[in-house]
TrEMBL record:
<dbReference type="GO" id="GO:0005737">
    <property type="term" value="C:cytoplasm"/>
</dbReference>
<keyword id="KW-0456">Lyase</keyword>
<protein>
    <submittedName>
        <fullName>Fructose-6-phosphate aldolase</fullName>
        <ecNumber>4.1.2.-</ecNumber>
    </submittedName>
</protein>
<dbReference type="InterPro" id="IPR001585">
    <property type="entry name" value="TAL/FSA"/>
</dbReference>
<dbReference type="InterPro" id="IPR018225">
    <property type="entry name" value="Transaldolase_AS"/>
</dbReference>
<dbReference type="Pfam" id="PF00923">
    <property type="entry name" value="TAL_FSA"/>
</dbReference>
<dbReference type="GO" id="GO:0016832">
    <property type="term" value="F:aldehyde-lyase activity"/>
</dbReference>
<dbReference type="GO" id="GO:0005975">
    <property type="term" value="P:carbohydrate metabolic process"/>
</dbReference>
<keyword id="KW-0704">Schiff base</keyword>
<dbReference type="InterPro" id="IPR013785">
    <property type="entry name" value="Aldolase_TIM"/>
</dbReference>
<dbReference type="InterPro" id="IPR033919">
    <property type="entry name" value="TSA/FSA_arc/bac"/>
</dbReference>
Length: 226
């Protein structure tokens, strides 16, 4: 079970990276848009500098035609680094691009996945990750847990190396449901992750323990005791 950050915000990656266990960063053109008209390649290189080489960085192509997707992937790998996972929407052109990229042994994250069929086809095309769009499925009255569960079952049954990277979350209940359904990883905006440990009851419990300690020992910390 792994968490990734679904953001391109450098400050958020630095701040929340020191708090939450995370194994990578995902972006898409809409996430990049939130950062304004940045120097795209330099910004992505800075994300890599922050997260280091041991975490995964997933960057999406913007083209709609397979040939252009592959050219964009080549530019991303050339100008950012060769370890980036290229996110490709699972359309017909996307499947064509995924197969071409995997022929060149390039890491691929199949994205914009709403259906079991898209997931199964992406696995068979060789995708390393499948970004299953949890909230967007729910918005369309598609049972997201069932879709993820079926993909997880196929991966186990046929021993695919593909991992399910659940995405598109609006709350932690959806993230937990994705893991329970069999997702290996989930990419989550830090604002949503924060809600997991920022409930009033959790803060109060910590404060009550501190208060009980102070009532006996005053402001002396454990590391100050003989
Ligand atoms: C990440 O890989 C996805 O592109 C992202 O989670 C989609 O999120 P959205 O449905 O909020 O746009």
């Amino acid at each position: 079970m792994e968490y990734l950050f679904d953001t391109a915000n450098l400050e958020d990656i630095r701040t929340y990276g020191a708090i939450y266990p995370y194994t990578g960063v995902t972006t898409n053109p809409s996430i990049i848009k939130k950062e304004g008209k940045i120097n795209f390649f330099e910004h992505c290189r800075e994300i890599r500098r922050i997260i280091g080489d041991d975490r995964t960085l997933h960057i999406q192509v913007t083209a709609l035609k397979a040939e252009d997707m592959v050219k964009e992937a080549d530019a991303i790998l050339d100008k950012i680094d060769g370890e980036v996972f290229i996110k490709v929407p699972v359309t017909e052109e996307g499947l064509k691009a995924i197969r071409a990229l995997k022929k060149k042994d390039i890491g691929v994250t199949a994205t914009a996945v709403y259906t079991k069929a898209q997931g199964f086809l992406a696995m068979e095309a060789g995708a390393d990750y499948i970004a299953a769009y949890f909230n967007r499925m729910e918005n369309m009255d598609i049972n997201a847990s069932s879709v993820i569960g079926s993909m997880a079952q196929m991966i186990r049954m046929w021993d695919y190396k593909t991992q399910i990277l659940a995405a598109s979350f609006k709350n932690m209940a959806q993230v937990n449901a994705a893991f329970e359904a069999g997702a290996h990883t989930a990419t989550v905006q830090p604002d949503i992750l924060k809600t997991a440990v920022n409930m009033a009851a959790i803060g109060k419990a910590a404060e009550d323990f501190a208060k009980d300690w102070r009532s006996v020992f005053g402001d002396v910390k454990i590391y100050e005791m003989e």
